Amino acid sequence: MRIVSLLPSSTEIVCALGFTDQLVGRSHECDFPVDATQAEICTEAKLDSSFSSREIDNSVKNLLQDGLSLYQVFDDKLKKLDPDIIITQSQCEVCAVSLNDVEKAVSEWCRKETKIISLQPNTLMDIWEDIGTVSQALDVVGQGAQLVADLSERMGHVAQKVKNIKNRPTVACIEWIEPLMAAGNWVPELVEMAGGENLFGQAGKHSDWMEFNELLEADPDIIIAMPCGFGLDRTRKEIKSIIDHPSWEKLSAVKNDKVFITDGNQYFNRPGPRLVESLEILSEIFYPDEFGYSHEGLGWEEL
């Protein structure tokens, strides 16, 4: 079987199901697990990732306003790879190559037998269903069910441990720096499961734009930055635009040293198996005396 996965989370799902050696193509963003990077790169971004948060946002809006895609799919490479399965998504046209991009690229040569699978996760349950969808396409339904069971069990361990905590910290999760955006989709579920009270963003819905005054008014106990596509170093650099706000020092989270940065690119922004690690990261941040998964320094740091 020849598999092409065009989003990082589905690549991780494919590999977790034991099909790394049959992964022949990937997106330019698929970088985990390391063995998956041996597959051919089949896409590229039309934006310069070195731009600032504000510049990236402006470029994205301009491209979308003109009806253009943010990504280039290498149709010649896809044709040469001749995949049996292509996995893409229709959840967010900003985050990864979309179903529409793929259909345009393969419309002239795609075999009738080639399966194009489009994932659209908005909640944790959707992600478990996506694992089932991929496992069904790969004809390993049992392995998919076992993977979901294992991931759910690990997450359940965290949820059970914080179940009886009454005084939960209020939490603001920031998914984009400039302009500010609150994390939505599955992140509010992770926050609640880890024993926090989520203040911004709604479970199962796309992330919402927010104003600094909203952050100031809510005055969360904990602020966590998890910008889409950014690692720790990039997030630490970009968050300076928020820190420079004249009212930043008024926030309780700032006064109490409860502002944290995370590797949103590797964890929170990827709706795949490593959302378990994302939950563990939150539990370490919320309750450091109760949890010690050793993600500090790798998945998160104190600002």
- For the terminal residues, how far apart are their CA atoms? 45 Å
> What's the CATH H-level homologous superfamily of the largest domain?
Nitrogenase molybdenum iron protein domain
Beta-strand residue percentage: 15-25%
CATH class call of the largest domain: Alpha Beta
- Per DSSP E runs of 2 or more residues, the count of β-strands stands at 14
Q: Overall 3D geometry?
A: globular
Rounded Rg: 20 Å
CATH architecture of the largest domain: 3-Layer(aba) Sandwich
In sequence order, what are the helices and strands, one letter per element? EHEEEHEHEHEHHEEHEEHEHHHEHE
Which range best describes the helical content: under 10%, 10-25%, 25-40%, 40-55%, 55-70% or over 70%?
25-40%
Count of runs of 4 or more consecutive helical residues:
12
The largest sheet, given as strand count, sense and whether it forms a barrel, is: 7 strands, mixed
Low-confidence blocks of residues: none
Mean pLDDT: 89
The fold-level CATH name of the largest domain is Rossmann fold
What can you tell me about this protein's structure?
Helix 1 (about 10-15) links the parallel strand 1 and strand 2. The chain is globular. The protein folds into 2 domains: about 5-125, Nitrogenase molybdenum iron protein domain (Rossmann fold); about 165-300, Rossmann fold (3-Layer(aba) Sandwich), CATH 3.40.50. It has 12 helices and 14 strands. The strands form 3 sheets. Strands 8, 9, 10, 11, 12, 13 and 14 form a 7-stranded mixed beta sheet that branches. The longest helix is centred in the middle third of the chain and has 21 residues, at about 140-160. The model has no long low-confidence stretch (mean pLDDT about 90). The chain is about 35% helix and about 15% strand. With about 300 residues, it is an alpha/beta fold.
